[in-house]
Design brief:
By secondary structure, the protein is α/β, with parallel strands linked by helices. It contains six helices and six strands; from the N terminus they run βαβαβαβαβαβα. The longest helix has 19 residues. The structure holds magnesium ion.
Amino acid sequence: MANTQRAVFLDRDGVLNQEVGYIHALEDLNLIPGVAEAVRRLNQANLFCCLVTNQSGPARSYYGIDHVDALHQRLTHLLAVEAGARLDAIYCCPYLSPSAGGVNPEFTRWSTWRKPNTGMLVAAAWDHHLDLQQSFMVGDKATDVDMARNAGCRGILVQTGYGDRVLSGDYQHHAQPDYIARDLADAVGWILADESL
Ligand SMILES: [Mg+2]
């Protein structure tokens, strides 16, 4: 089957929910205003909405993988109740190399899934017949934009989360996004204005 479906890949922290560091309490995961409505617009445009998130908490022994699953259940619940929005798939990388701080042996390894590597995007493309070159990645870090470019997607940097600090040069490194958006709603407006859609 040809890879013909177009996707919008979404980072989690700082794009969908407020960036508050490692989230130990479920109630500390809260959506950024306008996000649920923006995701629903993507759903209505028949773009495949795919979460792609690095979550190194389990590798750092901050909490278990079941806690990450519970956070994603809360995230999908909030999207649904606020605007009837849905994520079509969730890809999460819990792995971290020892040199980067991994300590729990179950999750401590170098992984092609960890951004800015492209493993999550490649897996999603295989699983769901996605055309990466016709797809978009929305993130708040330079590493999100790097992953988009590494995979041939268009990369959008939002100014929520770490985005403003990336742009001012005091977080990570210089990024070369295809578009800089105020927030996810602005990013979705830019995506839906694409004439090829
Ligand atoms: Mg983020």
